[in-house]
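Dear colleague,

Thank you for sharing your sequence with our group. We've completed the structure prediction you requested, and as agreed, I am returning the results in plain text so they can be pasted directly into your records. Please verify that the sequence below matches your submission; if there's any discrepancy, let me know and we will rerun it promptly.
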Amino acid sequence: MTLKVFNTLGRKLEAFKTVEPGKVKIYVCGPTVYSPAHLGHARTYVAFDIIIRFLKYLGYRVFYVRNFTDVGHLTEEGEDKIVKGARQEKLQPMELVDKYIREFEEDMQALGCIRPNIQPRATGHIVEIIEATKKLLEKGYAYEVDGTVYYDVSKFKGYGKLSGIRREELIKHRVEPAIGKRNPADFALWKKADEKQLLKWPSPWGLGFPGWHIECSVMSMKYLGETFDIHGGAQDLIFPHHENEIAQSEALTGKRFVKYWLHTGLLTINGEKMAKSLGNFITIRELLSRYDAEAFRIFVASSHYRSAIDFSEKAMKDAEAKLEKLYEARDTIEVALALGKASFGRDEKFEMEVKKLKERFIEEMKNDFNTPAALAALLELARVITGYAQSENPAEGSLILAKDTLLELGEIFGILKRKRIEEKTERIIQLLVDVRNELRRKGEFWITDEIRTKLRELGIELQDRNGETKWVVKRW
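Please find the predicted structure tokens below.
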């Protein structure tokens, strides 16, 4: 099966074919860095991290760009979010930007996300933004009113093709009120700066600053070319942000801007929209103070990237339980190998089962990165592995193959990175288990219960089944 992706442009599954054979160029809209990154950011960037990991697994050379918006993203009242945030925190705008970029990069590292090849800032591309705005004026797609340059949406015939919004409906969806605009839906490429605007640059139209939408057009095309493979972001960016990017970019070049548009579904918390006013706003740092990063990655993978996802205590407990099963499979193999329980040789029947589950995982991921179905295959693989490793006479070569397969597929999800406890520690635990079993045979149950309790406090869970005792490491 060839890789198929759901293209928001056209709203259908399409076979994935890159602009350059063997190479994927991808741009994902990054955060506006005026406050701490939150759960919504985490969901989007982990989802795209899994997509990028899978593209690399398939053999593509991936060039990944994710920007930082550090000027031009306005509040509903028309104030720059960076300037407002800096005023509230009593910092200079670039002090605020540097602070939250550092925090964001630390958050992404803590979540296990691959670092992009380039992370451009809008303020580092003012010259290119001014040149793009001048070109749009020259080509008749823009006009200037008292120091502000607007894009004329009526001049771009394809406007609305990404979002499906018709031109006559635009007024209902978004209006930037301003005197002198030709159409209510026209948007600013370059805005005249008032006295309150601390971030401003000289331009042919006077002191001003770039509009939010032109920033991403300029940065993406600078680093990825006039036509590139994937543009991603959350669904709330489809309109107006991504719609406007298409209008600007294709008017500038006369070429198709992006082949495939991918959008992540929105995140809710206990069924409600996340908002500071509702008291349910959770930053990535707060998330990671309560939950394991790999468990959050499993939580993200448990829903399709295009689907809405609801964050809750129950959902995270479910994710932790799934992750535990995967670690149990890996650790059970390693214990069997370390304690010499495996016999020399191979088990073709078991290896065939492992192969089929691996193929099922890959096929599901090729179907528009269907992580829930792929995760189900991975969990089934873990179940099969655990059962085989605990059997009476597992084959050593087959155990090694199964472990390698589990880790190989886990790498696509960005999980199973933590090391198993040391072999010496294992032998001590096994010694305690053997002593406990002997005490059970003698009827000294109060001591055996005490051993179980103390081991549980240390994160070691004992499982008594069919006269045997197995132990597993619990991480939560």
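Summary note from our side: Residues 313-338 form the longest helix (26 residues).

Kind regards,
the structure core
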